[in-house]
Design goal:
This protein is mainly α. 68% of the residues lie in helices and 0% in strands. The chain folds into 2 domains: 90 residues; 76 residues. The protein contains 5 helices and no strands.
Amino acid sequence: MKTLVLLAILITASPAMAQPDNPPPQGGGPLPGLDNGDMTRGEIQRLFDAYLVMEAQQALALTDQQYPQFLTRLKTLQDTRRRNQQERNQLMGQLQRLTHPRQPIRGDEAQIKERLTALQELESRNAAEMRKAYNALDEVLEVRQQARFRVFEEQIERRKIELLTRARQQNRPNPQGPNQAPARRPPPQPR
């Protein structure tokens, strides 16, 4: 049910997202399905991936011949991006543990250097893999569609960040009670 509600939100937002000159909708009421905080980041990412697939044919004006090849190559692009991001997150977590000032046993310089080298190698490999995945996708698309896809991807990413931010804000407890607006800070005094 939560999935359907979020998908409905995304679909409702699609006309605004399909117009490159229009910014995504702002503010608004609660986000059904996100207000209880039980959707993981991965679930939200999968919903946006599904939304991208659902809207791609219309947003890019894909032909019936392009669509199946586009879907296959889009999945490869998404899988590549996700796999590399997971590996990067793991390396960053290791670096954080090895270098955290409050950690009782911190890593030695050799361990840190090894993780930094692994991160550099991952970033190089990631760039090459992403270039390859985009090139494969571009083989299916005309030049105008290639550009439109980049813009469309960016709009979806912005919308995802906006929804995640709104969900986090809604999940924060209101110290003044549910019916009171949060107190406003006075403006900073000029110096």
